[in-house]
Model the fold of this input.
Amino acid sequence: QVQLVESGGAQVQAGESLILSCARSGVSSTPLGMAWFRQPPGKEREFVARISWSGETSYVADSVRGRFTISRDNTKNTSQLQMNDLKPEDTAVYHCAAGTIYGIRASDYEYWGQGTQVTVSS
Done:
């Protein structure tokens, strides 16, 4: 059984940076890619970034490309989302996900964390 726990969410001002972390516990019979999704207030969950199990392949959504970077450290079983130049529209609950398919749809991922809140003030 795989479990994911996000941390690092906070209230920040526009232009500041923040790092979110996702810790994975449990074991999997297959390698798992990891991803970050976010759900702004009143909106549906949207894709932010994904990374393969090895960390060799990653993809970031157009809306945050150039500001956000995804990484992982398999020795620590963690994934990080580095968020720079945060904007009010980045305000959302951010969720970590893991799965065997390295997709951009929420349905592509089997395991989910509870989420961590990021609030960006103008």
Notes: Residues 38 and 44 are 8 Å apart (CA to CA). The two ends are 40 Å apart (CA to CA). The chain has a mean pLDDT of 96. The first strand starts at residue 3 and ends at 7.
